[in-house]
Amino acid sequence: MKILVPIKRVPDPATTIRVLPDGSGIATDNVKWVINPFCEIAIEEALRIKEKQTGEVILLTVGQTTWQEQLRTGLAMGADRAILVKTDAALDQLAIARIIAKVAGDEKPDLVILGKQAIDDDSNQVGQIVAETLAWPQATFASKVEFAGDKCTVIREVDGGLETIAFKLPGLITTDLRLNEPRYASLPGIMKARKKELKEVAADSLGVDLAPKLKIKRLDAPPKRQAGRKVASVEELVQVLHTEAKAI
Amino acid sequence: MIDFELSDEQKMIRDSVGAFATEQIRPAARPADETGAIAADVVTQAWQLGLVSGSIPEQFGGGGDIRSAITGAIVAEELGYGDIGIGMHVLAPRLLAFPVVEMGTDAQKERMLKRFTGANFAAASAAVIEPHFDSDLTAMQTTAKRDGAAWILNGVKCCVPLAADSETILVYAATDAQKGFAGVDGFLVARNAAGLKIAEREKNMGLKGLATYSLTLENCRVGADTRLGGDKGINFSRLMSEARIAIAAFGVGLMRAAFDYARDYAKERKAFGMFIAQKQAIAFILADMAIEIDAARLLVWEAASRVDKGDDALKESYLAKNYVAASALKVADNAVQVLGGHGYVRDHPVEMWLRNARGLAAIDGIATV
Q1: Which residue of A175, B18, B286, B349 is most buried, as measured by CB atoms within 10 A?
Q2: What are the pLDDT digits (tens) for A169-179?
Q3: Among A49, A80, A78, A84, which Cα is nearest to A65's?
């Protein structure tokens, strides 16, 4: 099976994020960049599918030259080749989804699998837009994926429980947290990654409309959480919840 | 030319092994300290990272990567950041595999290396240290004497990791007591060889997850084909340099763990209305710890870069190992100090790291890069 895995580069979840004073973005000095954790789960799932059947796992990302690092990490985990669609512009989700759909149209994978959302902007829409653009079936928030021939069965995590749906390939899956635990890149895998193909394509050469429809006006850090306080009795607690917190 | 920049591959190795050490090894460290046993799934996962098989030549099923002492030092530091006892356990097979890769005969490679390229952890070990007061690797009391085509080994060794589980143990013995390092040879001795007796597991102050044993060789007769490198023998000085670099690198990882823990604690713990990290008495301690870590790592990297260039690194590796043995103890002790009363209780790992750090001075030759 040929599988396309679009991935995103995000700040390490362990990094302390600081918003720039003018609200234009976050301070990127001393930030460690990693593969978005949900995208890592997508790579892992693609590798497991490939190991069970046969096929090819192709990584794709849209960004600057430095994003190669994350593609190399994915190659070290075991992906076969990678494509970097290069741009210095800050593209919105729609433009990213259009690029992914364009590459999917060229590469003709059987499956596109990607993270349900990126942990930086949490927008949760790229997968859905790609599937709509391609007019492919989509199964979002997957916690289990199984194949029988060209039929794919996905268990989805939805509010209040699990939902099982099935579709015929080609199709698109977005991964939820409990789908798998991604592997660590092995030492031999890392050494082999250097020799694998990493193709660069200029974003504006794809003939895709990249004009942003969405503009981030400003970022603000969440307000500092106040310290808690102790109350002496249940009566006082009820009183405070009523008069101050206005919760009851 | 001097360049401290890691290659892209080395950075990825550091990140991957570092993530594994933080997420898998660290949580397994206290249970290993308490029970003396390391969780099997952590050992298996570590094995699958290819820490040993990656450097076995491709013809024996390995990754075929060129070995590098610098890369080895990076790996050991990251593993040590998780836990040095578990790190030494998962790297122990290198003690036999790597000298065979580097100095073994073709027949020895053929015989020994395949077992290290399977899916499951294959224990192996080396016997270096001797349990007497003036233990000196240049004047080993374990001897190997030729008897026709065979060799007869006599002596006592201690601190042999995983000896009871290793199919083969690389035993170092003096073939010519007058020649110092040059008079030492290695012998690939099967665990069940007649005349080799493995004693009860040692009970240690720290590194409690790492199973170590003493063993006795009493007229242990082994074939000529067990002598590592055949008639050419080995370069024991180089092997010991590699061992000391590894142990020192483990120590750097331990220091970093202790520093990070103490720093984070100091930034959260309030006393007299302020975070203790803002008090000079604590801030100075933390700064000194940070200096020790960088200084120690530079010593390790200098020794490792000499090994990688093929130069003699006996002095540099010895300096690195001795420096780390002292400074790891100091840094771990400082971490206990920064945590105050909390440092002394087992709810925090720093008391364990202090006990483990003490082991770095006592051990030699039980890890390699």
Answers
A1: A175
A2: 999 999 999 99
A3: A84
